[in-house]
Structure formats: structure tokens, C-alpha cells
Amino acid sequence: MDIDALRSFIAFVETGSFTRAAKQTHKTQSAVSMQMKRLEGELGKGLFEKEGRNLVLSVQGRRLALYAKPLLQLHDETVATLKSPDVRPRLHLGCPDDYADSILPSIVKLLHRYLPKLELQITCASSYLIRVMLDSGELDAAIVTRLPDSEEGYLLTTDVGVWIGSEEMDITAQNPLPIVLFQKDCKFHLAAIDGLMKQGREYRLMASSSSATAIKGMVKQGIGLGAMAKLSAGQDCFVIESESLPPLPSIGIALVISSRAHSPLSAELAQQLVKGFTEMT
């Protein structure tokens, strides 16, 4: 497909006329018109139709418009990258806040070991938002929670949920039981609520947050009990082992590569990261 013709087509989409498209691309109107005819001939589809006195996009033209900008952007990025004397791979990595202290630093260290010139951008957000960004291609890769028997991504490690609380809190004297949890999309949120309801135990959800730091801070202040992965709790949290509390599930923590992003993270490199992470831990 003629990239210059595609650029003129985008100019028409943005301006709504061949005259303004010609001005935007610094061509004559007849040159733009010829480009569009060649583009239609190459695709075998009419891209424009008359609407009164105006020329507008046809159904096929609107379909092409959905892909034209990303195609042109990818072309320009590819040319710029190949022309660059110092190619620096870029990676946008997503990580839930609860693994930012336990898993993320090791992965970052390994990434720079295998990709010395890497330009790394990290986004920490809720697990739900991380998955949305991963699916849309906004992230190249992400560290995510999965079921232990799932085949999703590349398994970094497994973990188990634990209850955490203040050492001074007597949980048997708390009625209702105060709890602070991750947001509703978190497996531990669902398991904690479901388990307490099955026990017939009254509870009060004091707060929910996507931030592990916020939850641990509230737990240390005695505001409520928390439920999270043992790795996320770390060494500075008091783990409560009590048969009066419902058990929390086991999880897998995996590295997932976006199928929609043009990531420098290949399957082979992902496997190296898993191996390196296992050796480090």
C-alpha cells in the first residue's frame, strides 16, 4: 500500500475535503485525487461516495480509516527506529501495586541485564486496569495474578493468601470484624467476603483500595484486617494464623505479553526472565 497515498487519505479524513487535504499535505488537489483513485484501484473498493454536493467516506472508506492512522504511525516509527544510530528498545510494563515491592524490582533488574539499552516505563495500577491496558495494547507486558492451574503467560511464582492485622488487635472480640481489602476485582477480596459470609460472621468493610501500601498502613493502625498474597504482605506485616478466619486461595503470578503491542519482549526473553527470577528467589 502506498504510504504517501495513505497519508493523503488520512488528511481527507481529518479535513473532510480534497482541497483542504491537498493544503495539509502540500500537494495539488489533482495529485491527491489521483492518489485516491490509485488507492481505490489497489484495494478494489470504492472509498468515497457522494452525499449531496459533498464527497464523504463510503462504508469501505470508514473501515480503512480505522486502520490507516495506526498503519502510518507504525510505518513512521519503524523508519525512525531503523534510521536511528542508537536503537533503544522501549517497553511499557504494567504491575499491580501489590507486587511493586516484591516482584517488580527483580524483573526490572533482569530486564536491564538482558536489554542493556532498554527504555522502561512502568505503570502501577489496579489489576483490572492493568488487564484493560494490556488487552488494548497500551502495555507491552504486565505482571498479573492468575489461577494456579491457568496457562496464561509465563509463570513467575505461586503464592498463597494470608490475613494480616495489628498485633494488638483481638480478632475474637471484634464484632462485626473490621476489614480493609483490595478492590472487588481482586481474588482475595472475593474470597475474604465469601468466606466470612459462609461462616456467618458479621463484618464491616472499612475501606477498599488498589494500593497495597494504603491497606498495610490501615492494618498497622488497627483499622481492620487485610487479605493479600503473602509476598505482598512482606516482612513488616503481622500474619494472622487463626482457624476462626476463612482460608484464602493460592494464586499464580505470571508475566504476560500483550498480543496487540509491538513489544521488545519476545517469548524467548520472557522464558529467560522466568528462569532468572527463579534463580534470584
Description of the molecule:
The chain has about 280 residues and is an alpha/beta fold. It folds into two domains: about 5-85, Orthogonal Bundle (Arc Repressor Mutant, subunit A), CATH 1.10.10; about 90-280, 3-Layer(aba) Sandwich (D-Maltodextrin-Binding Protein, domain 2), CATH 3.40.190.290. The protein contains ten helices and eleven strands. It has helices spanning about 5-15, 20-25, 30-45, 60-85, 105-115, 125-135, 185-200, 210-220, 230-235, 265-280, and strands spanning about 50, 55, 90-95, 120-125, 140-145, 155-165, 175-180, 205-210, 225-230, 240, 250-255. The strands form two sheets. Strands 3, 4, 5, 6, 7, 8, 9, 10 and 11 form a nine-stranded mixed sheet that branches. The protein has a two-stranded antiparallel ribbon with strand order 1-2. The longest helix has 25 residues, at about 60-85. The radius of gyration is 27 Å and the shape is elongated. The chain starts with a helix and ends with a helix. Belongs to the LysR transcriptional regulatory family. InterPro entries: LTTR, LysR_HTH_N, LysR_subst-bd, WH-like_DNA-bd_sf, WH_DNA-bd_sf. Keywords: DNA-binding, Transcription, Transcription regulation. One of its GO terms (molecular function) is DNA-binding transcription factor activity. This is Transcriptional regulator, LysR family.
